[in-house]
Amino acid sequence: KESWTHLFANAVAEEPEKYGTSAANMGLSFCSAVGARHWIGVQLRTPRFPISVLGLQAGLRAWQRLHDARSRIRHGRINRYSLIRCHSPMQLEAAWQQLKQVYLDIWTEAGRDGAKIERRLKRLEDRHRIH
Known about the structure:
Helix content: 55-70%
Number of helices: 7
Largest sheet: 2 strands, antiparallel
């Protein structure tokens, strides 16, 4: 059975070819997201990665890293109250700290200002705690 990442890579390479072009010629890019609503009220999204060999590899690695960090706690169709019943506050905080660090690493590796990203996350955390 092929992994979804392999299927995704094949699709972005093969589909444009059916129309006589390439993903690079079309300027295609992608980003991925993981749930973080419990901590900051929104999803975490990666930077946009171009559909090129290096961009595709980097983007899929970024998704995998975020997914792995987020998978420390239950995910999918779950609300805040169910999440709190399944995990202790310490587990939730540890998961958030790991997810946040992976997110910051991905953005800084993509050449973005880590301090600026960290300030944005802090504002989101503060705003979400108020609600």
